[in-house]
Amino acid sequence: MKIALVCEWLDPWRGGAETSTMQFLHRLMATDVEVHVFTRSRLASTPSMYVHTISGASMSRARRSMTFARRVEKRLAAESFDLVHAISPCRGADIYQPRGGTVAEAIERNLALRRNGTVRRLKRYANHFNVKQRYLLTMERELFSDPHGPIVVAISRYVARQLRHHYGVPHDRIRVIYNGVEPDTTATQERQRHRLAIRKEFDIASTDLLVLAVAHNFRLKGVRRWMEAMALLQSRGLKDLRSLVIGKGDSPAWHRLAARLNITDRLSFVGPSDRVPMFYHAADVLVHPTYYDPCSRVVLEAMIAGLPCISTRWDGAAEVIEQGKNGFVLDDPWNVEALAARIERLRDAALRNKVSQAAGGIAERVSMAAHVRGMMRLYQALARAEVRC
What we know:
Blueprint: E1 2-6, H1 16-28, E2 34-39, E3 49-53, H2 61-78, E4 83-86, E5 95-96, H3 103-111, H4 117-127, H5 131-145, E6 151-154, H6 157-167, E7 174-176, H7 188-201, E8 209-214, H8 223-235, E9 241-246, H9 252-260, E10 267-271, H10 276-282, E11 285-287, H11 297-304, E12 309-312, E13 328-330, H12 336-345, H13 349-359, H14 368-383
Parallel strand pairs: 1-2, 1-4, 2-3, 4-5, 5-6, 6-7, 8-9, 8-11, 9-10, 11-12, 12-13
Helix pairs in contact: 1-14, 2-5, 7-10, 8-12
């Protein structure tokens, strides 16, 4: 089977969607599928993956994306593939998999960050001048409204709801194939070495409760809410709490906020890191009070590493969390009190151990191997014309 996969960017440093796509491709290359990747990223071809680097040269980011899409569409029309699997919006695709969820939902959830109604209205008005956003919304409407459009793969039930709510995509065009991550196969002794090394590096006592946050977009992923929860817990006399925040969202403004909240000596901004699995092993809890996440890789990775996680109902990954059993789900990311209360509960080492063991139990359900098996079944069904394309 000869597959064309369209993804504008395939640089893992850009975020979880790109990382997921790269892991998916590595797994796919182990099958009998011949993969042709169309991307703007400069990657080397391999014997089982042919990379077609398509330039998006233009004067603006929006125009570059448009140019990329237009050039890919021309290439696809000129060549022969059994299936076209698009992760970036592309006309002529047989499968469209919006790994970032819908643009329409992302806009609404970014607006939810603004509690002030006037500020929200101004932001909504300003969105009309965002050329790239308008282009992506137009492409979404075109792909989803076409009754003969592609099968749409949702990486969570939350994304499936977005498709129905914003665009009325019928059930028979949606396939939920859950997001996948690679397993954590680190041996117990190695995990313990990671725990000791990270805690020593950041001067964290073995008895401290270490809470981890991992995000690139600090605002959207609720880092401020976590910092406010830390301040609340500190005011209640919780002295053994430490936190590390990993990601490229760090800026002087966040350090000033930490100083205002009087948590500077309790919280450290690590910056981007390629040692995130080591931090999972060093931590006791992961917090992800996000305002929007189609299906957080961070939460899935942390859970299969055995880390109790706290997320929100606006995260597709929350669908694998059983409340109080293998993690916790917050109804409202603004509810700092509820977040603090979950941390207080998880101070109990016996409860943490119980939740940790249950969290690791989701590993097979959210494995990248399971995700690839689901996609392969869809490929084969489409190739046999068993589903509408």
